[in-house]
Amino acid sequence: MTVILGQTFTGISIGAVLLLIALGLSLTFGQMNVINMAHGEFIMAGAYTTYVLQKSISGAGVSLLVALPVAFLVAGALGALLEWVLIRRLYLRPLDTLLVTWGVSLMLQQLARDIFGAPNVQTRAPDWLTGNITVIGGDDPLTFANSRLFILALAVAAVVALSLALRLTSLGRRIRGVVQNRDLAEVSGISTSRVDRTTFFLGSGLAGVAGVALTLVGPIGPTMGTNIIIDAFLVIVVGGIGQLKGTVIVAFALGVMQSVLEYSTTVSVAKVLVLVAIVAFLQWRPQGLYTLRTRSLV
Amino acid sequence: MTLPTLFKDPSARAWTGVGAAAVALFAVAPLALSDFRLGLLAKYLCTAMVAVGICLAWGRGGLLTLGQGVFFGLGGYAMAMHLKIADAGPGNLPDFMQLYGTATELPWWWRPFGNPLFALAATVLLPMAVAAILGSFIFRRRVKGAYFAILSQALAAAFAIWLIGQQATTGGTNGLTDIQGFFGYDLDDPVNQRMVYFVIAAVLLLLIVLVRQLMHSRYGELLVAVRDSEERVRFLGYDPANVKLVAYVVAAGTAGLAGALFVPAVGIISPAMIGIVPSIEFVIGAAVGGRASLAGAVLGAIGVAWAKTALSEEFPAAWTYFQGLLFIVALAFLPGGLVSLAGIVRRRRASHGSGDAGGNMDGGRDGDAGGRADGDTVGNAGEEKAPAVPLGGAV
């Protein structure tokens, strides 16, 4: 019993990482219909930012907390730059954007290899994140790792902050307006190109935060983003575009499913089963779990 | 027929191109290249076969399949399984199974591949069947555009991970290696390597001719129509799902055949050749040459594969940067590919004469696929907001 609970908790923490990554993607994909393959490399940028900060700041706890805003800014700046240089020229060709940003991600990976070397590097987790919390004691204990609880808290905080920002701030209103009807937003006096760039900054910045979180559970390497980005895209596809709740529900659902299936079969079989489940789910809800209802045909 | 009229007639132009390619592949290349280089060319031609399918599915149908590696792998593994069984001889297990020592007899799903006819048929039919099942699920529910691309990519990831996990029966990360014979011929013999090259060249030419005929049939027109405006095609009474399904299945078949012929040419098939990265590399060749033009896609695929060997041997880091740049430049600034350059230059000249910049929509209709790549909106299925300006004009 505790094994199943433990696996579920692991799944929830996998889901939290997926959620942090998918939040940013859901912003950019939802608003601009842009598939940013370089999102994974923004995660990598966030992770390496943590690594560099830990080298220059001695305390692991302080450097982690400093890394959160710094990684947000670094990855966000990279995203805004990418939007300004390439993506804004490609808004009418979403499929081409996918391949163009793949090219960007290849170059960023190689850049990381040239700067930090091809082997993976590690950061040290601060002391207050290394232990476990024992939920059920006794012979068959159920423990939650502190680092995973921290990631979960980070993901929840990011969701709350983002949904409040979207609901309450004027930037959030503009973003929602552009997502719902770009042309109408444009004729109402919203500078959609400026909103696009801000959204891209926010979405990429969230990837940087996800990168900081990932340093707590795994090594940092040039290809760390590629391995996880596909799963995050699947979260978007299944969750539906334009609303956060689909992303949140599906991220946790996929995380738990992957973790529980891994336990009952093997890692590789679990991957295949999850994909089959997704294709089956799309038979039922081809537009994803939640969608904006519009009258357009496409 | 005089020479100028010959080059105006699209069909004559296409046949001239195929003839020239046949001369180059069967006469020039074997004489000019060493055995080693000819072996490399055989490998590139396999990539070009995949590009033929991508040209149909993506260039003409707007289906960005980032999972062609799956079909390439299915064909390759089907062929390699047969060759491994044949290498081992009757009653023996393939070498890697003996090495891992878990199995005492062939797994049940290996056994049919001992039959050469079954294995040969499976190299093409297995990928087509998988594509048909998956495609009918995806297209019927109108999952399209980016969603389709992501699903196809996830498929490639899942397949590669699954293969790696089945160490005892698929060779895991190593794949199926060290293949000695090809239907009784010893692959170490250079003469037989040459024979494999000729088989590959012949199959590639045959595929080009077949797919070209398909593109220029009624079906081909319908496919382009679905790419450019799926809803209108539906209102006209066609089912776009079936149209897309055919293109996807044919593309899967060509990739399967390519994988099957890749195995005797290179002697190995492994998950590293079919995952996410190789799958997306299949696409870049077609994109650089010209996704909607068969000649462009094939030459682009061969060119990029050649550049990869030439550059990555000496400067592996430089190759990665170059490859990234290729993606960016080819797709952001030259979506019609290299073949569209001629049309762009021609239109520039024409517009300088008439003072009507970018308004010449007929530029793309002057003949074969090469002309069409820059005339129509490319790869933009379901995007109603696409401007009615030739994409080449944006350069």
From TrEMBL, chain A:
Keyword annotations of the record: Amino-acid transport, Cell membrane, Membrane, Transmembrane, Transmembrane helix, Transport
Location relative to the cell: Cell membrane
Membrane-traversing stretches: 6-27, 59-82, 149-166, 200-220, 232-256, 263-284
InterPro entries: ABC_transp_permease, ABC_UrtB_bac, BCAA_transport_permease
Membrane-topology annotation of the record: Multi-pass membrane protein
Record has RNA-binding as a keyword: no
Chief location: membrane
Domain of life of the organism encoding this protein: Bacteria
Sequence similarity: Belongs to the binding-protein-dependent transport system permease family. LivHM subfamily.
Name of the protein this chain belongs to: Urea ABC transporter permease subunit UrtB
Organism of derivation: Streptomyces tauricus
From TrEMBL, chain B:
Chain intervals with Basic and acidic residues compositional bias: 363-375
Pfam families the UniProt entry points to: BPD_transp_2 (PF02653)
Superkingdom to which the source organism belongs: Bacteria
UniProt signal peptide: none
Predominant location: membrane
Compartments where found: Cell membrane
Membrane topology label: Multi-pass membrane protein
Transmembrane feature ranges: 12-33, 40-59, 117-139, 145-164, 195-215, 245-270, 282-307, 319-345
Keywords, sorted A to Z: Cell membrane, Membrane, Transmembrane, Transmembrane helix
Region (Disordered): 350-395
Name recorded for this polypeptide: Urea ABC transporter permease subunit UrtC
Organism: Streptomyces tauricus
